[in-house]
């Protein structure tokens, strides 16, 4: 796993929020020096959408102030572009300058060890393949439309397959944490039933760590075989007790002490310690969706 | 004839016609189906692996629900010297063309196509895979 370069103070706002994931194709002629201009343009775009009467939803205000900034800390290698943060706040009604604007939507573009993508793009393109959003879908769609129009890029929802969810469990189930770890939980959706049925499989953190320690051969390295063995152990344990083959069901959600992830492409990062590793995996998923 | 796993029940052995082709179906969304196939393979006589076995991977249209690595299945095909076909049963067009392909393979395995044996056909398929 990569060395943790992320400053916990600066990235604390990322923790414990449910982020919806998207993959983004490279941005054409994106200039970091023009972030203030972009913010102004996006603000105008949103105001225009309000005029058009589009994207009007109960509870969604459109007197929006946009802020864009660069987060140098959020990157993996030197080749990675620094993350770009977009914040939408509700302009405060009160006349006093001290009253705070309410943050209603947050989105950030990042690339953590995204060299696979950035190595192969021409000069004018900026690679920030992972886009994470928190807030109303209507804001996401406005911000997305503006970026697509302005930088000729393409956003797509990033779903997480059961295969990749298994990797997430395996990678962080056995993590050494400073504080007491919460357990590992796997949620499965049973197929082909007249009524939807979900099975939740909770594992004590000590047991999960003990199992992973017997499976992993080289510390710091994880292979597909090890992930398979780990999951097979969990499946056979469950089968022994409940006579149900979880391997025939669809893994839809995983939770570990470090990160929780849902197959619809929603993640929550719970610890700053392993943030870099989580973002690296998500960047990789975004890149494989783009390519 | 459809079976959920092998070996087939021995009670009906004497009534069963000659088996020309075995198609093992693996649902890419279900790890369980892969394990089931792996266990069933052990019950197949070695002579079948001379062109009378093929793997059919279904559900490839929904890679977001992927539970089995494509590599794993391809390696299985290599280990057992048998071709691996990929299809999506939910799409009618693909379903029909896959059925036609299997029928063609079956005709060859049953010896209905003069000049082409099951073994020669399989090595033909393998060579095109490598390309």
Automatic annotation (TrEMBL), chain A:
Top-rank taxon, per record: Eukaryota
Location of this chain's protein in the cell: Chromosome, Centromere; Nucleus
InterPro entries named in the record: CENP-L
UniProt main location, coarse: nucleus
Transmembrane segments: none
Keyword Transmembrane helix among UniProt keywords: no
Gene Ontology cellular-component terms listed: chromosome, centromeric region; nucleus
Keyword set, alphabetical order: Centromere, Chromosome, Nucleus
Family: Belongs to the CENP-L/IML3 family.
Protein's name in the database: Centromere protein L
UniProtKB/TrEMBL annotation, chain B:
PANTHER family documented for this protein: CENTROMERE PROTEIN M (PTHR34436)
Pfam families: CENP-M
Natural source organism: Origma solitaria
Top-rank lineage group of the source organism: Eukaryota
Keywords: Centromere, Chromosome, Nucleus
Subcellular location: Chromosome, Centromere; Nucleus
Gene3D superfamilies hit by this protein: P-loop containing nucleotide triphosphate hydrolases
GO terms under cellular component: chromosome, centromeric region; nucleus
Protein name: Centromere protein M
